[in-house]
Design goal:
Number of domains: 1
Distance between the termini: 36 Å
Radius of gyration: 20 Å
CATH architecture: Alpha-Beta Barrel
Organism: Massilia litorea
Protein name: Glycoside hydrolase family 1 protein
Largest sheet: 8 strands, parallel, barrel
InterPro entries: GH, Glyco_hydro_1, Glycosyl_Hydrolase_39
CATH superfamily: Glycosidases
Low-confidence stretches: 409-426
GO molecular function: hydrolase activity, hydrolyzing O-glycosyl compounds
Strand order of the largest sheet: 1-4-7-8-9-11-14-15
Keywords: Hydrolase
Length: 426
């Protein structure tokens, strides 16, 4: 299969820690996926989708440097393979196992590459990966806002987290390619913009607008501007560490996944403080900024909006985002996919997972009783209407996706060299 356009949804496996590392905000658990995983995969098929952003819970699967519990992953991925659903595998989503600590740990990149290699060997039919989800957001929320994981608030911690997250992402890509040479990597990264509220805020806004690119600049081996180079070196990155990113990037294996929500645009005041701006530029304008910088194929990897009192707010947002996707594509950007994130409602995202309230957020295509929402109906209709049309618009723009049923002569969901007695592998 050469996919002309990828319609997807996601089942969120966020698992940051809060409360000094004592509380694990496990979205798979909060949203009932461990109990309803088969039903959730039914719902993906009910929508007419064949691609799913999905990954096993890192903190439950990765028990030590070479110790893994594959029990849940084996069940889930065998079922995805049987259904011929292609997962975009999300290996690390905002949190690490307790034994790693947090993203300040300098051993994390090499250790994580080992986990990625073990996953790729066990599920060799998997081709699409997001090794580390939203590296920039993960670093900002953990080390500048003080919300997750490290719960720090300083630039040195931010630079440390960014360099470890991006290095881990790069080393994981190299490790996966040794197992699956045709692997494709879809970075899911938040696309942001900072608006100056006054002339005195222009400097802080420019600083933020330069810093928003750091994760992708390092990941794609793009030289940062001089202000950002000084910022990185002033906050603990060495010249040798910087040169690693210039020399080891795998840009040619990548699709730039970009995420856009109403919360992605910010006002900046003269003192550098930021606050939500709502949608000002919108998806199309900001996506062009990122595309012009990296010149890679683009996939819209996340968006959603809460179903409000009118019942049609999320439907309106879906239509608006889809219009933006078509605008970007018609402007000549190789935009290859769209994702409503996520499949079901989410829990505690109203506080950005920084408070364990158990608040259900009506953001999904289905509610937590697995009943379809109006936006789910609208998305199903959108997919049905557009999936047959878009590939013919650009027959050259096709992604070499190998669906699970097309992989190999004999399909197996486990590494033939892996022990078969029990789920815990040492």
């Amino acid at each position: 299969m050469h996919a002309g356009f990828i319609f997807a949804t996601g089942i969120e496996n966020s698992a940051p820690t809060i409360g000094g590392g004592r509380i694990r905000m496990d979205e798979l658990e909060k949203c009932g996926h461990y109990k309803h995983w088969k039903l959730d995969f039914d719902l993906v098929q009910e929508l007419g989708l064949r691609v799913l952003r999905y990954g096993p819970p890192l903190h439950r699967t990765w028990l030590g440097p070479t110790r893994f519990d594959w029990e849940f992953a084996d069940l889930a991925f065998a079922d995805l393979q049987r259904r011929n659903i292609a997962p975009i595998v999300d290996l690390c989503h905002f949190g690490v196992p307790d034994w790693i600590g947090n993203f300040q740990n300098p051993d994390f990149p090499e250790l994580f590459a080992g986990y990625a290699a073990a996953f790729a060997r066990r599920y060799p039919w998997v081709q699409l990966y997001t090794p580390i989800n939203e590296m920039w957001i993960c670093a900002v929320f953990s080390t500048l806002y003080g919300w997750w994981n490290e719960q720090m608030r300083n630039d040195a911690a931010f630079v440390t987290a960014i360099k470890h997250l991006v290095k881990a992402n790069i080393l994981a890509m190299h490790a996966i390619l040794k197992v699956r040479p045709d692997a494709l990597f879809i970075q899911s990264e938040s696309t942001e913009y900072f608006h100056a509220e006054s002339p005195d805020a222009i400097g802080p806004a420019e600083m933020n607008n330069a810093r928003r690119f750091l994760a992708l600049d390092l990941n794609y081996g793009r030289r940062v501007d001089s202000d950002m180079y000084e910022y990185l070196l002033d906050n603990g990155m060495t010249r040798e560490e910087y040169h690693f990113f210039l020399q080891h990037n795998l840009k040619h294996h990548c699709i730039m996944g970009n995420d856009y929500y109403q919360t992605n645009e910010h006002y900046v005041s003269a003192d550098g403080m930021t606050r939500a701006a709502g949608e000002i530029f919108g998806y199309a304008v900001i996506t062009h900024q990122y595309y012009n910088r990296y010149r890679l194929p683009v996939m819209h990897t996340e968006t959603n909006l809460c179903q409000g009192p009118g019942g049609d707010e999320a439907v309106f947002w879906l239509k608006k985002e889809w219009a933006n996707v078509l605008r970007v594509r018609n402007n000549g950007v190789p935009l290859i996919g769209f994702t409503w994130y996520s499949l079901t409602d989410q829990v505690d995202w109203d506080s950005a997972l920084r408070v364990n309230n158990g608040n259900v957020n009506a953001l999904g295509l289905f509610d937590l009783d697995r009943k379809i929402r109006p936006v789910g109906v609208a998305y199903r209709e959108l997919v049905k209407a557009w999936e047959a049309v878009l590939p013919t618009k650009s027959i050259c723009l096709q992604v070499p996706v190998v669906m699970p049923h097309e992989f190999g002569a004999e399909i197996t969901s486990v590494d033939p060299e892996a022990p078969t007695s029990g789920a815990i592998q040492g």
